[in-house]
Amino acid sequence: MTERYEGSFFGRRKGKPLSPRRTDLMENVLPDFALDLATAPPDDLKELFPVPVGAVCLEVGFGSGGHLLHRALENPKIGFIGIEPFVGSMAKVISSVIDQGIRNIRLYDDDAVKVLDWLPENSLDLAYQLYPDPWPKKKHWKRRFINEQNLDRYARVLKTGSEFRFASDIDTYVDWTLRHIRSHPDFEWTAEVADDWKQPWANWPGTRYEAKAFRENRVPRYLTFLRR
């Protein structure tokens, strides 16, 4: 039976009030970088970016934005779409984008499901979901983003042969993800030995959530799945 959840897969959207500068950036600069889901997407997602890019990657729930910014600066010829509903995190990233002159990023500050449904089929070269909210209480597991419906969404927009990368320090969510994705006909877990999921990907910058996991003696896992 297909799992369904009607509602958001994220928690609160606002925390501390923004500084005047970040408020201005959110109101007047973010729209220049934001996806416009009211219009049809281009057939080729590379057209979303004002600089030439050869591939397009997606990060769902970029949190403080460290990984997204690192990858965008490291790979100026790749376009990155970052999704994050938490206002403080989005304000921090748009501030860094302006300060560092990053042009190969596009952003969206609402539910990732809307973007996945908007994107054209077979349009992404890579997708990341790093340390998503684990919703640790069993009664909330239905709010976990990894489910049959959303895996169908990822499968639709990822190109054949591309990768979906997932990281978490919560054992129950790692097990949950493995069970769901390994049973999905469009994905294949690439791990052959233990280090394949114990070690992060190349040029890994770490994340704020990962640092917290290490401080609290939790062990992160890094899962890579191939879109068949």
Automatic annotation (TrEMBL):
GO molecular function, one term: tRNA (guanine(46)-N7)-methyltransferase activity
Reactions performed catalytically: guanosine(46) in tRNA + S-adenosyl-L-methionine = N(7)-methylguanosine(46) in tRNA + S-adenosyl-L-homocysteine
UniProt: S-adenosyl-L-methionine binding residues: E59, E84, D111, D133
EC supergroup of this enzyme: transferase
GO CC entries: tRNA methyltransferase complex
Keyword Methyltransferase: yes
EC assignment: 2.1.1.33
Pathway: tRNA modification; N(7)-methylguanine-tRNA biosynthesis
Annotated keywords: Methyltransferase, S-adenosyl-L-methionine, Transferase, tRNA processing
UniProt cross-references to InterPro entries, sorted A to Z: SAM-dependent_MTases_sf, tRNA_(Gua-N-7)_MeTrfase_Trmb, tRNA_methyltr_TrmB_bact
Domain of life: Bacteria
Pfam families according to UniProt: Methyltransf_4
Binding site for substrate: K137, D169, T207, R208, Y209, E210
Family: Belongs to the class I-like SAM-binding methyltransferase superfamily. TrmB family.
Protein function: Catalyzes the formation of N(7)-methylguanine at position 46 (m7G46) in tRNA.
HAMAP family (UniProt xref): tRNA_methyltr_TrmB
Protein name: tRNA (guanine-N(7)-)-methyltransferase
Biological source species: Roseibium limicola
Recorded name of the encoding gene: trmB
